[in-house]
Fold this sequence. Notes:
It is a single chain. Strand 2 (60-64), helix 3 and strand 3 (81-86) form a beta-alpha-beta unit. Helix 1 crosses helix 8 (231-239) and helix 8 (231-239) crosses helix 10. It is built from ten helices and nine strands. Helix content is 36%, strand content 19%. 49% of the residues are buried.
Amino acid sequence: MSPTLVRHQLPHSGSTRCDDPPAPTLSRARTRDWAEIQERMLVPLYEAAYDRLGVGPGTRLLGLGCGSGLALLLAAARGAQVSGVDADESRLELARERLTPDGMPEHTRVVSGGLEAAAPGDAAFNVVTAFHPVGCVSTVEGLTASLTAAAGLAERGSAVVLGGWGPVERCATAGVLRVAQRLADPPGGPVIGSRGWRPSGRDDLEDLADRAGLRPDGSGRVACPFGYADLASAVRGLLSTGLFDAALEVAEQRQVEKELAEALHPYQRADGTVWMPNVFRYLIARTR
C-alpha cells in the first residue's frame, strides 16, 4: 500500500465544510468526534461499493473528501493502493496517522499539494470515490469541478462512486437534520441555510454525474443506521458532520445543542442508546 494524502479545497461532503474552517481547537475536537463517533456509521456504504466494484489488489483508488481516512483504510486492507484529498487539514492529519503508522515501509508517501499531487506516479487511478456529496446545495458546482478534475486523472472507463442520503421517508436522521435547516433560516434572518443540510432529490446523484461528464452505470441502496452510546454522543457525532455549521452561525451553540438533543429524544431507547435507521444511496458512474 502506498497511501497519498493531499490537502485540496473540496466542497462539503459530510467530511468537509461548506464555509470557512472553525477555530483550530474546535476543529480538532470535531475531527476526533467525527473519527471516533460518526464516521463508522457509513462503513456499510463503503463496503457495499467496494464489494460491487471488487476493490482489491490492482485497484488504484482516489478518495475525494477522504476526511479522517476510514474509507481509505478499508480499501487499503483489501490490497488497494489509496490516495486521498480533503479540505480539512485536521482530518488529513488523523488520516495520515491511520494510514502511515510507525514501521510502514519507506515507500509510503504523504504529500501536500493540489489534486494532481495525489496521482500515482506510474499509472492513473481506476476508482474514484466521493461518498458524501449530497447535503449542501451551494457546493454542486465545486464538486462538479473536483469530479471533472479527478476523472482527468483516471483511466477511461474507470468507476466513480457517488454517495448520498436515500429517500427522506427512509432516513430517520432527516427529521433531526431539519433542526439545522430551521435554525439556519430563522424568520426574518439572513438566508444562509442553503449551505446547510437539505433533503436529497431522487436524481441528485445522476444529475451530478451528468454535470461532471460521467456515464451512470448502476446504483444501489444501503442501510446505514446511526447508533450512539448515549444522547451526548449523538449530539457530538452529528455536530461533527458540518451539517449544523450554518445553524451555528446564526444561533448560539447552546441553543443548537439543546434543540438537537430534543429532536433526538424520540430515538433514544430505554437503555439510553440512540438509534436511527437510515438508507443511503450510491451511484456507480464511469469516466468517458
